């Protein structure tokens, strides 16, 4: 039990509302998401964040910490931390008992050991030299992730997952061609060039390991019309003439269902909203209209009204 907790009859803790709000906003979570996870109302979450309820049930605190992917201690109010002085290190006792003389090794027994040590050292130095001077192979991959379907005029996300060497920076050039019937609404990270009508998006960056490039786009067209995507990603001058294409999804189809409604049953299930959070939750700088997706999930279904270009949520 921490110093902030209050014992029986009900275990209570004092939380820092500013921390809760900051962690929620950093992860792109809504108050509705936290309220659903903790099983309270959005008004309660708002009161916690604004410190109108500084003390909450420990049970709710644990649920809140789990939803924010932190430990419970990270949400508690900070107490004055006392400075603890380090104790001086104690003297290390002698390993050799008093009165015992050190045994001298005979010269004849030293030479085999010395030869073995020198041989191992030579092998290690040879390995280091060859590893530094031999050409290194960079493992590189690029994959596009698209929703299976979209609605004409409604924004949806496109993800480019680029993976390079995790141990050092890798310079790369990414070119993503935009469909002629499409308009780009948002790009992250910021593009080096392009993104306007009929202009490819271009990124020139250095990455470490795996990084996500994403953009929000909306297209025009008729139902059942295919929308095609293409692009290239290269990490070396050798591939400049014919850079490899980005693998993964290349088409989506225009229809009457929200892009997050994977099975197109006019509702968003638990697994579908979790898929949205897992796939897109950590991407910063894009607007997925999570509030709308959560409203559809909370309702019993939805219907797309093409005349008003709105989603009608069924309670």
Structure explained in plain terms:
With 315 residues, the chain is α+β, with helices and mostly antiparallel strands. It contains seven helices and 15 strands. It has a five-stranded mixed sheet, with no helix packed on it. Strands 4-13-10 form a three-stranded mixed sheet, with no helix packed on it. The chain has helices at 17-26, 31-38, 42-49, 58-67, 107-133, 270-280, 290-298, and strands at 12-14, 55-57, 141-145, 149-151, 156-163, 170-177, 182-188, 201-207, 210-219, 226-228, 230-234, 247-248, 251-255, 301-305, 310-314. The chain folds into two domains: 12-75, 434 Repressor (Amino-terminal Domain) (Orthogonal Bundle); 141-314, Immunoglobulin-like, CATH 2.60.40.10.
CATH class of the largest domain reads: Mainly Beta
| Largest sheet geometry | 5 strands, mixed
What fraction of the residues are assigned to beta strands by DSSP?
A: 25-35%
Tell me the strand order in the biggest sheet: 7-9-5-3-12
Low-confidence regions: 1-9, 80-102
Average pLDDT rating: 82
Q: Helicity, in percent?
A: 25-40%
CATH superfamily of the largest domain: Immunoglobulins
Count of discrete domains:
2
Radius of gyration: 30 Å
What separation lies between the terminal Cα atoms?
Answer: 43 Å
In the CATH hierarchy, the third-tier topology of the largest domain is known as Immunoglobulin-like
SS class? alpha+beta
SSE order, one letter for each helix or strand: EHHHEHHEEEEEEEEEEEHHEE
Count, helices = 7
Backbone shape? flat
> Could you say what the CATH architecture of the largest domain is?
Sandwich
